[in-house]
Amino acid sequence: MQYGYFNDDLREYVITTPRTPLPWINYLGNRDFFSLISNTAGGYSFYKDAKLRRLTRYRYNACPPDQNGRYYYIKDGSCVWNPGWQPTQTELDRYTCRHGLGYTVISGEKNGVSAELTCFVPLNDPCEVNRLVLENRSAEIKDLDIFSLVEFCLWNAVDDATNFQRNYNTGEVEVDGSAIYHITEYRERRNHYAVFAVNTAIEGFDTSRDAFCGPYRGFSSPETVCNGCSKNSIAHGWAPVGSHHIRLHLQPGEKRSLLFVLAYIENPLEEKWEAPGVIAKIRAKELLARYREDQQAEFAFAELHNYWSGLLNRFSVCTGDEKLDRMVNVWNQYQCMVTFNLSRSASYFESGTGRGMGFRDSCQDLLGFVHLVPSRARQRILDIAATQFEDGSAYHQYQPLTKKGNSDIGSGFNDDPLWLIACVSAYLRETGDFSILQENVPFQNDEKKVRPLLEHLRRSFDFTVSRKGPHGLPLIGRADWNDCLNLNCFSTEPGESFQTCSNMESRKAESVFIAGMFVKYGGEYADLCDWLGDTAEAARARAEIEKVRTATETSGWDGEWFLRAYDAFGKPVGSRTCEEGQIYIEPQGMCVMAGIGVENGLADKALNSVMERLETPYGVMLLQPAYTCYHAELGEITSYPPGYKENASIFCHNNPWISCAEAVLGHGERAFHIYRLTCPAYVEAFSEIHRTEPYVYSQTVAGSDAKTFGEAKNSWLTGSAAWNFVNISQYILGIRPGLEGLEIDPCIPRWMKGFTVHRVYRGANYYITVDNTAGVEKGVAAMKVNGRPVAGNRVLLENARSEYNVEVIMG
Ligand code: BGC
Ligand code: NOJ
């Protein structure tokens, strides 16, 4: 069953009922100002940091769900309704929500009045624009009362939700014409405020939530709206809101457009006040003046549209499979942008108050983003690397506002350093900008400890070299990619964080997954050293890699698949000898991607075992059999009921690793089959089971042990976006950036008789045609570049050439 459909021409997902199984959301904003918006106009806004600069308040875990957003109430006689149905939930005569790239349009119609709400964050201003167009489609005159509503957050979202004894006293506002200023704490240490304004004269306003709602009433039937009259309330403490009242008199057929803007304004400290006690409004007025007229808003909207067209023009494919094309050309890349921007901070499953930017998360997000805006990827790499410690380890998270490592969580996740190599390598392959390696980057954000980025990579590599366990495999530390496999934790205290506690420093617990990573990304480091002419360092690196490869093939092999780990007592994890958790997905994917066991058949065996033991119709499960009870020696993974999250759900993040691994072995049918199982556009057909948005990946889908098998959770902010894009673009379609240029190495199902790709790469346009009339799964039989046959499958760079025509014949 579906709750909407894709409109490929407009690059939109059109939702046709407000009663989606869960709120289906979109993200507005690309850089500093962000908003989340659901299909019923719920959500919230923040500036840069969802924890420290929250503009509007959101009620988590609310019942009914999704409370608070940018709400517009329409009072037409005794009928009060919202174009997005919430919060009044008045039944609409017509409803659609169109989520597009950086914008959302919600349209509702009731009793002959239609309302179309277009929400977007312009490219160049820190604000959300809401254009509300009302049309009288009836034969009578309509006298309408329109009320807007946003509820302000007192900036720090954690404090806002906890420190009521203070917060109920601090709230302050200023009202100036049609502009409502939220100025809490501006009197003291803040030099920023929010403003919510409309481009027309208003009948009245409210800024006190309690006045707006009336005693014991909520946003579903606020007193102000039901009475058709604002109270001109001024908030003194308690809960400041912004609400305008506008009266419209519409003739039959008449249309009116209103522009509302919610903006974040920062003033230089010395320019905070325009008079004693009166905030300086110049910057706010300048910004608002840019969205006063419809044409201005239309222009900003067109700019946003063009921006996205330009971005998506950098990689597009035509395969003839419309689901595949729409994922590659639009939605997967779009999600890559969102995950790059927000890491795992703010979604409908991440409160925005917990994690900032994850080290491993951001490094991986970059893999799917780097081709879109390489300059931003460059900056991100430098920011991330600056949080690294001198010994090569890393802060596991950092706050986007301060860019400083987060000491609450600290370090100790032993896979982190290698992800830095992965993302720098991806950046170099994409851009050829080797100058980044010479950039001076601090350790631990300390300007006194500055070394070139290349040195950071060396320390990342050596971090693993110098931390190995009894089997010569890398020590796992607190955890590796699987945050829940906590082999040194031994927690028995309810509520204790699995991520930060470690009750045993075994120096024994080893990770076969990190071993795979080390062989793969260590190998990329060695290639880079060769490329830079440092053959001695390359040889040293390769010798280290060989040791770990051998250790993996001997001590990391269980007979039919790769082991997952050794625990703190040296007992295998992910082995046929275990009672539960006999086989894990991660090492099978990563080790084969690294090329381990490809020559000697281990890789084939491992992937067969995955197919036999882990694959389901909804994707490949993380492990089997699921753990049925808690094991202190394994940690959080066993805290989840069977089939959920890391305990044997389907992780959309590492499904592509299996698909990539199949491609490494030349299995095009299998690679594509695995790709499809979790791919949103294919999953759309059973949205009532899957339940999260059908245009983006979710982190996890309940596995076969779960009662809710097939149900997804944690949509949007997941490394699944980047990895699925890497998989489909580089492994399946096989357009792979290398240090010396593009390599074309498709691995596709036999039925796919060919495809074309347009890709912008290092400043040139590549038009690639792949012909698979032969119906093979892998293999380039012949290739021509600009009409000339070339040997192999590399497109060598030619100076000053801006266009490459590449014809590939598979066979
Ligand atoms: C989740 C993991 C996540 C970790 C982050 C755990 O509860 O299951 O998926 O990586 O929290 O701290
Ligand atoms: C989500 C976390 O953000 C990511 O860092 C981790 O690798 C996965 N969960 C698996 O535990």
Automatic annotation (TrEMBL):
Residues in Glycosyl hydrolase 94 supersandwich domain copies: 11-292
GO biological process per UniProt: carbohydrate metabolic process
Pfam families: GH94_b-supersand (PF06165), Glyco_hydro_94 (PF17167)
Keywords noted in UniProt: Glycosyltransferase, Transferase
InterPro entries for this protein: 6-hairpin_glycosidase_sf, 6hp_glycosidase-like_sf, Gal_mutarotase_sf_dom, GH65_N, GH94_catalytic, GH94_Enzymes, GH94N_CBP, Glyco_hydrolase_94_b-supersand
SMART domains the UniProt entry points to: CBM_X
Protein name, as recorded: N,N'-diacetylchitobiose phosphorylase
Species of provenance: Caproiciproducens galactitolivorans
